[in-house]
Amino acid sequence: MNQQIFGKFQTDFPNDREFLNIGFSPSSLSIQQRWRNNGLSADFVADYMTTFFPRQSESQSEQQRQAELKHAVSYIANELLENSMKFNYAPSEHSIEFGIHLLDREEAQIVLYATNSVHLQQVAEFQDFIQELLTCDPEELFVLQMERNAENPDDQASRLGFLTMINDYAAQLGWKFTTMPNKDSIILVTTMVQLTV
Amino acid sequence: MNIEPITGENYLVEYHPDTTTINFQGVLRLAGMTEYEPIDNLLTEVAATNPSTMTLDLQKLEFLNSSGFSILSKFAIAMRKQKTTKIMMIGSQNITWQVRSLKNLQRLMPNLTVELK
Fold first, then answer.
1. Fold for the domain defined by B6-116
2. Does A158 contact chain B (CB < 8 Å)?
């Protein structure tokens, strides 16, 4: 593998729009110590994004729209960060990156992504799940996944985050897998979520 | 039955035996199923008393990550078998995740009552 793309994945962002990138060093703190940072970062980027969607009026529907945008961004950002921290392959010493881009203000299109490293051995299982996500009916898969989780209480991955984004926030997902230069066993995975609010 | 409340930096989960209601408040973003175990155990303990009704009041639960949602879905699956207990979840119209996601639990458990206030 040098590079593989699944789902809806965008590489060119317009260079005249708002964006924010954050990096996390995986070795500076333990996962337990950095966990609360996920929520703080998610809330911060959600607040940051709402600035660019000011209320047109003080009507209840406008207030609700802004609250929904903020929650959707916060939920997706938090899930992406949690996944990146949880599945990151620490020995690679590659930093975890998170980004958010405002694609189109009129259409209220936002892209969020997170990149982390994984070991080559983790890739096949993850890609199988991605294929399932991209080919199955998401509502049915959601129910099936909840049943699977109940049967496997020791599995730490609920796998409900991506399904919630697709089902409940009408998000479009994509993934890029890239082999790290000179390290064939380490793969960088970027998960990208496109949201229209 | 005395069940101790579960508290953390931003959350509180508390059982009220007089109404067999479990109140959830704040922001739940715990790390994986292990950290959710105390909440999972609380739900199981209350269910084990075989109450006629069990209410999960989520109106003040502003945020729940996917691992936390998985605990609710696991609970709904377990309670499908316990036909003598009626399960109610009370949510808020003003909290986006509840409006968008609680319906998923009704797909698992069609006789679950979800009320959004």
1. Transcription Regulator spoIIAA (3.30.750)
2. yes
